[in-house]
Amino acid sequence: MASLAQQFTGLRCSSLSSSRFSVNPKKTQKVGAFSSPVVSAVAVSNAQTKDRLELKKMFEDAYERCRTAPMEGVPFTLEDFQNALEKYDFDSELGTKVKGTVFATEANGALVDITAKSSAYLPVQEASIHRIKHVEEAGIFPGLREEFMIIGENEADDSLILSLRSIQYELAWERCRQLQAEDVVVKGKVVGANKGGVVALVEGLRGFVPFSQISSKSTAEELLDKELPLKFVEVDEDQSRLVFSNRKAMADSQAQLGIGSVVLGTVQSLKPYGAFIDIGGINGLLHVSQISHDRVSDIATVLQPGDTLKVMILSHDRERGRVSLSTKKLEPTPGDMIRNPTLVFEKAEEMAQTFRQRIAQAEAMARADMLRFQPESGLTLSPDGILGPLTSDLPAEGLDLSDVPAADEDS
């Protein structure tokens, strides 16, 4: 109580008798314990002091906890906080690749959530390496999670512009370099032309095929929308140069064709002198004289463009990319190609085998004639076309030459 009295030391109050609020002594005596206004002031001061002390202690306790145990009561660790920052923080520089989830599509593109301050946008022209009208054509639907490349920024709302096309271009160039290293033959669709050659689409990239590197004499209009077998000549991503050769691809294909082999072909066009047959990308000529043993006055009565047939390889010029074909050699009976072509195709392999045997025997006879002028070789020819030894240096059964491939024709 003494301390409370000290707080009010020097407190002066005006005389109650002189105040206009003077109190009647008689009434003052009746209020008993509440007669003094100083007692009320002391009670209010006690309550305020208690509140101040409690508030001070609360702040002191909070400060001590922050100093000694700052993470006490926090439901995550500093490591969790750092991981959260990394998850929602990324480099927005042009060319940066980010993960995102498509959450809406529209006529001109798609909205993508890349955990940035605003959603990113994928324009339809950047949705695929191929030309499409709607993003759905590229398999883009809400919920798709993919890696995108940042290619720009929309200044109107600070949103980022994304691309899948740029990433697909990188992969396409890498694939072309790999295919060139493997020296493989690829298929390319002709989608355009200029005065120097045609433009072919391979792995989504547009490459150039010079006319000098096309094996056939077809015009650009005739090649449009057709697929050509191609080989890579140049793959330069930095210069955006992609050059192909159809002639090299044809040379590889022709190397696998042996004289006397039977292949399946499709009639491409008819000319007065014969029919052009497509045999797996190679354009061969079935001359009118090689259609049948019987005379063919009008090719159109036997063949039509689009017909599928079996033909036999008679010869091929690798330098010029020319292949000569025959159905005449496949006829079981002369004239069957005109009267019963189905029978010709059924017996094609059998007739071709007979043809190859005759060729092999003829070549063996020619070699035997040469050996007659070289008796020191010690070889002789049996009636079956088998060269056998006169000495014990070679197998007693001799060497079978029936499967020796034919020599190439001089060009």
From TrEMBL:
Region of interest called Disordered, as start-end residue ranges on this chain: 382-411
Main location: plastid
GO BP, sorted A to Z: translation
Protein name as annotated: Small ribosomal subunit protein bS1c
Keywords tagged on the record: Chloroplast, Plastid, Repeat, Ribonucleoprotein, Ribosomal protein, RNA-binding, Transit peptide
Keyword Heme: no
Gene Ontology CC annotations of this record: chloroplast stroma; ribonucleoprotein complex; ribosome
SUPFAM superfamilies (UniProt xref): Nucleic acid-binding proteins
Domain S1 motif: 95-165, 183-247, 260-328
Pfam family, one: S1
Source organism of the structure: Hibiscus syriacus
InterPro entries (alphabetical): NA-bd_OB-fold, Ribos_protein_bS1-like, Ribosomal_protein_S1-like, S1_domain
GO molecular function, one term: structural constituent of ribosome
Family of the protein in this entry: Belongs to the bacterial ribosomal protein bS1 family.
Subcellular location: Plastid, Chloroplast
Top-level taxon of origin: Eukaryota
